[in-house]
Structure formats: structure tokens, C-alpha cells
TrEMBL record:
The keyword Nuclease does not apply. Belongs to the uracil-DNA glycosylase (UDG) superfamily. Type 5 (UDGb) family. The lineage of its organism: Bacteria, Bacillati, Actinomycetota, Actinomycetes, Kitasatosporales. Gene3D superfamilies: Uracil-DNA glycosylase-like domain. This is Type-5 uracil-DNA glycosylase. Keywords: 4Fe-4S, DNA damage, DNA repair, Hydrolase, Iron, Iron-sulfur, Metal-binding. InterPro entries: UDG_Type-4/5, UdgB-like, Uracil-DNA_glycosylase-like, Uracil-DNA_glycosylase-like_sf. Residues 71-249 form the Uracil-DNA glycosylase-like domain. Pfam families: UDG (PF03167).
Length: 266
């Protein structure tokens, strides 16, 4: 497993300020993704992701786990961003791609495909041929956290990566869909720092929540939507159904100005 990537290891990858030092210097998403994959800023997350990678589940014992921070996935000119929580220990932490290889990803990519925003309804590994059309999938925390619960400090340390990603997407970005309250709460301050005015009091999360951040001198208007996270807890209990997510993705695609097919229901 190559832990350093092209060009060898960068300085200070173990320091908490590494994301803050590196993120804003990136000139494109490919460079940003490479720097994210090198980050070792949060000791607890580094230890957990590597422990999981060293002890695969029996079902994945033949896999060489990624075991690193997981970059975002999707084109550089995306008009819609989908912001989740963090990679799953045996999902993105195994495959190296956001929402790939776990039940939440299966649900999300099937819905994206149903709306015409993904080339296929399944996501199994980084080289499976999946393409996203006008959509970038990312998260406010790029390492798999124990019990799927990053700490506020870990979220804050990782925040510059999301800020830089949204900055690089800003010329084409027209809508953002936050999956879950965590994604919503992490997203709004970053959008504010990036130059979009955030209403006060801060809008409350809910499935179907929607707000418009007005254009400024350097930013186009941006639509922000909220959805329940496609976690197994939500999908198994019916709190989030497939049709609910398809309908919200259809709305988000329309707001982003993306062409799409008529939704295909399973």
C-alpha cells in the first residue's frame, strides 16, 4: 500500500494544522484529493482506520484495504455536491472511494442512477467504471471514525478540506445536498466562510429543508437542501425510503440545472 502518493511524503502530515496549511494551496481537485489521502492530522482516526485495515472482516479478507483518508468523488465541474458524514470503516475505508462498498452507498448510488446522475446503480470498488454526471460526493470528515462518530475537534481539523473543495467547485456549483444533521451542521459554516451569506438564526436541519444563499460579488446563488442520511438505521426503519431520496435528488438536480432522465423506481 502506497501511503505517500506521487512526489513522496509532504511535511508535517502528522500535525493538526496540516489540512489548514495544505488545503487552500491546492489549485485543483486532483491535487486536493492527493493531499487529503496523505493526511495524518487526527491521531485517533489514523489509529482506527489503520487498525480496521489490518484486521478486515471475514467477508473482505482478500481485500487490501485503502486505510487512508478518502477523497471526494465526481467531476471537477460538478453543479451539485452531496455531502455526507464520513467514510465507513469497511466501506470507503476499504475501497478508497466515498460511499463505495457499504449499504449506505448502495442506497445512494442506486438513487443517483435512478435520477440519471450516475452511470450505474452499484458502487463496489474504485475501478468499477462508475461515473457521476455533474455530481460530486464528499464528506466533512475524510477518515472512518470509531462508531461512525467523529469528535467536534476532528470535524474542525478536517474542515479546511471541505472548504477548499467547495471553493474549487464554486465556479460551477449551484446546489448542495447535505445528508444528515451532521453534514448539514458541518456544511453551513464552511459555506459562510467561503463567501455565501448564511441566515441567522441558522436554518434547522430536516428532510426536505431548503434554503437559498443569495449571490454575492464573488459567488453565484446557491441552493442548499437537507436529506436524512441513507444509513441502514434510517432505510431499514423507513425513515428514509428510496422514493424519498429519489424525489429529493430530482429536486436538487433541477435546482442545479442538471439534465436528468425520468426517475426509475426499483
Amino acid at each position: 500500500m502506497d501511503e505517500t502518493g506521487p512526489g513522496g511524503p509532504p511535511p508535517d502530515t502528522g500535525e493538526v494544522n496540516f489540512p489548514a496549511h495544505q488545503a487552500a494551496r491546492c489549485h485543483g481537485l486532483a491535487e486536493l484529493d492527493g493531499q487529503i489521502a496523505r493526511c495524518r492530522a487526527c491521531p485517533r482516526l489514523v489509529a482506527w482506520r489503520e487498525q480496521v485495515a489490518a484486521h478486515p472482516r471475514a467477508a473482505f479478507r482478500d481485500w487490501e484495504y485503502w486505510g487512508r483518508p478518502v477523497p471526494g468523488f465526481g467531476p471537477e465541474d460538478a453543479a451539485l455536491a452531496v455531502v455526507g458524514l464520513a467514510p465507513a470503516a469497511h466501506g470507503g475505508n476499504r475501497t478508497g472511494r466515498m460511499f463505495t462498498g457499504d449499504a449506505s452507498g448502495d442506497f445512494l448510488f442506486a438513487a443517483l442512477h435512478a435520477v440519471g446522475l450516475a452511470s450505474r446503480p452499484t458502487a463496489t470498488h474504485r475501478d468499477d467504471g462508475l461515473e457521476l454526471y455533474g455530481v460530486r460526493v464528499t464528506a466533512p470528515v475524510h477518515c472512518a471514525p470509531p462508531e461512525n462518530k467523529p469528535t467536534p475537534a476532528e470535524r474542525g481539523t478536517c474542515r479546511p478540506w471541505l472548504a477548499a473543495e467547495l471553493e474549487l467547485l464554486s465556479p460551477t456549483l449551484r446546489a448542495v445536498l447535505a445528508l444528515g444533521a451532521f453534514g448539514w451542521q458541518a456544511l453551513l459554516p464552511v459555506l459562510g466562510e467561503a463567501g455565501w451569506p448564511i441566515p441567522r438564526p441558522r436554518p434547522v436541519f430536516g428532510h426536505g429543508a431548503e434554503l437559498t444563499l443569495p449571490a454575492t460579488g464573488r459567488r453565484p446563488a446557491l441552493k442548499v437542501l437537507g436529506s436524512y442520511h441513507p444509513s441502514q438505521r434510517n432505510t431499514f426503519t423507513g425513515k428514509l425510503t428510496f422514493d424519498m431520496l429519489v424525489d429529493l435528488l430530482t429536486r436538487a438536480a433541477d435546482l442545479a440545472g442538471l439534465p436528468r432522465s425520468a426517475p426509475r423506481r426499483p
